[in-house]
Amino acid sequence: MVKQSKRYRAASAKVDRNKVYEPGEALTLLKALPGAKFDETVEVAVSLGIDPRKSDQLVRGAVSLPKGLGKKIKVIVFAEGDKAAAATAAGADVVGSGELAEKVLGGWTDFDIVIASPDMMKHVGKLGKVLGPQGKMPSPKSGTVTPDVAAAVREFKAGKVEFRTDAGGNVHAPVGKRSFAAEDLEINLRAFLDHLIAMRPAAVKGQFVRKVSVSTTMSPGAWINYGATTNA
User: Fold this and answer.
1) Cα–Cα distances in Å, from 121 out to 12, 95, 126, 147, 204?
2) Which is nearest to 206 in space by CA: 44, 23, 57, 46?
3) Other C-beta atoms within 10 Å of 17: how many?
4) Backbone φ/ψ region at 176: left (φ over 0), alpha (ψ -120 to 50), beta
5) Could you give the strand order of the β-sheet that contains 170-177, starting from the edge strand earlier in sequence?
């Protein structure tokens, strides 16, 4: 059993795990808990009513958060020629093709997002064993395999978030930093949940969203009334 810190225990005492909070109330509470020595990420975790063993029920996508993420996103791009130049001009941190693939295969993973033009999948396809477990493998569904690599770079640099269901049928995503105003965190949270709910697979029967919680990097989670965060 992992030993909990004194700070975590103090935070846990202030979060009622039997209560479902309104979003703004939960986010304000998180900001008031004893904090870490760094600007923690605020995260949302969503339990979905899907069967993760069935491919037609899996959810994967990306959404732009109106208030951004509050951190520098490191983006690498697989492209050549004019597309490579456009990606560099748009702010990509590293741009390349075959040689970049070899670098990643060698164990280099110091980046957050991988974007590729479709003609580069001949290089990117071999990186599944490295990028897949980290959730960084580019995909058309998440907008990271695209002919317009420059536009994708700008979107992810500005706060676009990738997400996908895990083996337990859950989705996790950052919605900002603890230093954000609670109102800005709520705007980002609403944008994420609205987008996620709109992606409900046709094969899913019954309740799609089961539970939603918010937490910071080092805090316990607080359950929230997700219906109050959406425009549905």
Assistant:
1) 46, 14, 8, 12, 31
2) 57
3) 10
4) left
5) 170-177, 41-48, 209-216, 222-223
Count of positions (residues) in the chain: 232
Torsion 74-78-83-88 (CA) sign: positive
- For residue 35, the 8-state DSSP code is P
- Containing 177, the helix (H) or strand (E) segment is strand 170-177
**The overall pTM is greater than 0.70:** yes
The half-sphere exposure of 154 on its side-chain side, counting CA atoms within 13 A, is: 7
3-state helix, strand, coil in the chain (%, to 5): 40, 20, 40
Unique residue bearing structure tokens 């994420």: 192
Q: 122: which 2 tokens?
A: 């001949």
**Cα–Cα distances in Å, from 53 out to 56, 58, 134, 202, 208?**
9, 8, 19, 15, 16
pLDDT tens by residue, the chain, 232 residues: 445 678 788 888 889 989 999 999 999 999 999 888 999 999 999 999 999 999 999 999 999 999 999 988 999 999 999 999 999 999 999 999 999 999 999 999 999 999 999 999 999 999 999 999 988 999 998 899 999 999 999 999 998 998 999 999 999 999 999 999 999 999 999 999 999 999 999 999 999 999 999 999 999 999 999 875 554 4
- Count CA atoms within 13 Å of residue 211 on its CB side: 13
C-beta of residue 79 within 8 angstroms of C-beta of residue 97:
yes
- How many other CB atoms sit within 10 Å of the CB of residue 37? 7
